[in-house]
Amino acid sequence: MTQDPTVTQSATLAGAFDELAGSYDHRHHEDIARALIAWVSPGGADAVADVACGAGAVARHLARGRPGTAPPVLAVDLSPGMIAEGRARAAGPEQETAIDWRIADAVPLPVADHSLDVVFCASSLHFLGRRALADWRRALRPGGRVGFTLPLATHFRPSARFSGHLAADVPLPHTAQEASRWATECGFTGAASRVQVLGTRRVVLTSASRDGR
């Protein structure tokens, strides 16, 4: 029986992130999470997913300020090591119930059609591919929003270990305008992007909406 190459690649990527879970540059990704949340500005009771969440920086920051009546933030990652690290970093009993941790492939998301208000994807879309945006359109309610980041092409230097996992159909933007145009090409509306400077690194933050149909 021939093994599905997508499954093999996912397992390899999961293993790589498992090994890095404890020593990952979590501070950098916490900074990205805060900037992306501020850019998208979700409602406190929105149904939210943190896609390919790593240690769940977005989910954990959102969980700290959500009312008790809000649905748990869905945090999905294929790496058991990253999910374990996220659980360990979640402070307080309220975050144990405010986040729904899932070890699963990020595409497709394990949610019903049109069930989410906001989808976040920080620092991971360039591994997932364009198919992720199609799945987000499925998962979002009409008018729902996405917030994602991509590395700025001029400042991105992936290691040899991860460069082979980059999605060929996700163009790394050279400008914020390029990121917005690509989100529009993928079927979203009202795209707005900006470059976030984080030390010597540059990432592009993008917010966009699913159409109202």
Could you characterize what this model shows?
It is a single chain. The chain has a seven-stranded mixed β-sheet, sandwiched between helices. Helix 2 (26-40) crosses helix 3 (57-64). The protein has helices spanning 5-20, 26-40, 57-64, 80-89, 93-98, 125-128, 131-139, 160-163, 176-185; strands at residues 48-51, 73-77, 99-103, 116-121, 140-151, 189-198, 201-209. It is globular and about 40 Å long. The model is unreliable at 1-9 (pLDDT under 50). Strand 1 (48-51), helix 3 (57-64) and strand 2 (73-77) form a beta-alpha-beta unit. The protein is an alpha/beta fold and 213 residues long. The chain is 38% helix and 24% strand. The protein is built from nine helices and seven strands, in the order ααβαβααββααβααββ.
What would a concise description of this structure say?
With about 210 residues, the chain is α/β, with parallel strands linked by helices. The protein has helices at about 5-20, 25-40, 55-65, 80-90, 95-100, 125-130, 130-140, 160-165, 175-185; strands spanning about 50, 75, 100-105, 115-120, 140-150, 190-200, 200-210.
Task: State the share of residues found in helices, binned by percent.
Answer: 25-40%
Would you count the extended β strands for me? 7
CA-atom Rg in angstroms? 16 Å
Largest beta-sheet details: 7 strands, mixed
Strand content: 15-25%
Structural class: alpha/beta
Number of helices: 9
Low-confidence stretches: 1-9
Global mean pLDDT: 87
Along the chain, the helix and strand elements come as HHEHEHHEEHHEHHEE
- Amino- and carboxy-terminal Cα gap: 42 Å
